[in-house]
Amino acid sequence: MISTIHGQITAVIFACLVIAFIIGSTLESWVSDDYSTPDLEGMSSRVSTIASVLATATPAERSTVLAAANRGAYRLVLRPSSYSERFTTSSPDEPFIQVAIDRLLPPEDRPVPVGGWRTFVDGKRVLAAKVDDDTLLVMELLPESFLRNDALRFGSNYLVATVTLVILFSVFAVWAITRPLRGIASAAMKADISVGPALFEERGSVEIVALARALNGMQRRISTMVESRTRMLRGISHDLRTPLTRLRLRAERVGEEDVRDALLTDIERIDHLLKESLSYLRDNHQREARQRVDLASVLQTVCDEFADMGHDVRYRGPARMVTSFKPLALTRAVTNLCENAVKFGTHVEVELRIGDGMTIIDVMDDGPGIPEEYRSRVLEPFFKVDAARGGADAGFGLGLSIVAEIIQAHNGKLAFLDSSLGGLTVRLEMPF
């Protein structure tokens, strides 16, 4: 089997030539055998042959030759050479298709008539051949329709070759190029940076296999690099917990109450930062498998948990909606959004609906919102909008980053909109 695209293209062209030769010859033979329509080149050859006979004949013999030649369906007459002054190269009654064929595929390898292949007298097509310097042999009353052997031969071959090339290259492009590339693009859209099996199928032509192997190698290198970085950060965060515990014990023995409270507050904040960092570095949402779960029930449970803690968080949507998603990861995302909402607002609504084949989750609050110029940056880890979301419990800017990664793992989109409650609406869209 030919394994390179270059070899496959060469094979397609060779197959096209063979098919065009076989089908074109068959078509020409079929038309010639089944239709008795005369051909222009044959008639011109006949006129030229009779003219050559008349050139060596006596006047009496010319009459005999003409009489014998006119026993067929054509009319041959002798005209003076001045008759050629009446020749024209066009006729108002000629079909456009005939004009196009004459222009694109002029006859070859035949005696050219006097005046050329397109010769008309009073709008009627004629063929003329020179007998001598003073005489022309003219074939008049040509049939209204006739074949063009050259046009039939070359036209059929060209038509068959063109159609065959289009069909074969279309099939080849889909089979050898388009389909593998679409598969690679689809795998790339669904890819994550976790270490796992090869994402891209290494099958097809040599070039497609080389591309898939290069992408698989790149994915493995990126995964290894990210995994190494994550292990390092996890180790640093974990190792800091021990000295942080010692600092807390020592701070509790400080005699001055104000100093002790300030130290314990800073220690708690550092401990909170470590917890959020470790939570961000966990990529359980990448490894979790999708399941068919009642999404409406999951959202109602999240809202009920916040309501039990005294927050005004309400669910709005269908009582049941079973769809495919990662339940633990999506629960974590909606929980993070609700935590942000109750932190900076007093009333929160979680709405679920379906639109344009997408599952849409809106988390709306009546807080201060996020200024338009910061909405593209709040998804960056550790970025905080202090002017809009200040305060001691403002967090460290990791919650929305985690939400963004979870929605990306669902092949969805996250958007920030103005809320009907006066604050911010965070919209999650995922394929249904």
UniProtKB/TrEMBL annotation:
Q: Which reaction does it catalyse?
A: ATP + protein L-histidine = ADP + protein N-phospho-L-histidine
Q: Which GO terms describe its cellular component?
A: plasma membrane
- EC no. given is 2.7.13.3
Domain Histidine kinase, first and last residues per copy: 235-432
Q: Which top EC class is named for this enzyme in its record?
A: transferase
Q: Which SUPFAM superfamilies match?
A: ATPase domain of HSP90 chaperone/DNA topoisomerase II/histidine kinase, Homodimeric domain of signal transducing histidine kinase
Give the domain of life. Bacteria
Where in the cell?
Cell inner membrane
Q: Which UniProt keywords apply?
A: ATP-binding, Cell inner membrane, Cell membrane, Kinase, Membrane, Nucleotide-binding, Phosphoprotein, Transferase, Transmembrane, Transmembrane helix, Two-component regulatory system
Write one Pfam family the protein is assigned to. Answer: HATPase_c
Q: Which residues form the HAMP domain?
A: 175-227
Q: Which residues cross the membrane?
A: 12-31, 158-177
Membrane topology, as annotated, equals: Multi-pass membrane protein
Q: A Gene Ontology MF term for this entry?
A: ATP binding
N-terminal signal peptide: none
Q: What is the protein's major site of localization?
A: membrane
Q: Which InterPro entries match?
A: 2C_sensor_his_kinase, HAMP_dom, HATPase_C_sf, HATPase_dom, His_kinase_dom, HisK_dim/P_dom, HisK_dim/P_sf, Sig_transdc_His_kin-like_C
Give the matching PANTHER family.
Answer: SENSOR HISTIDINE KINASE ENVZ, SENSOR PROTEIN CREC
Name assigned to this protein: histidine kinase
- The organism encoding this protein is Mycoplana azooxidifex
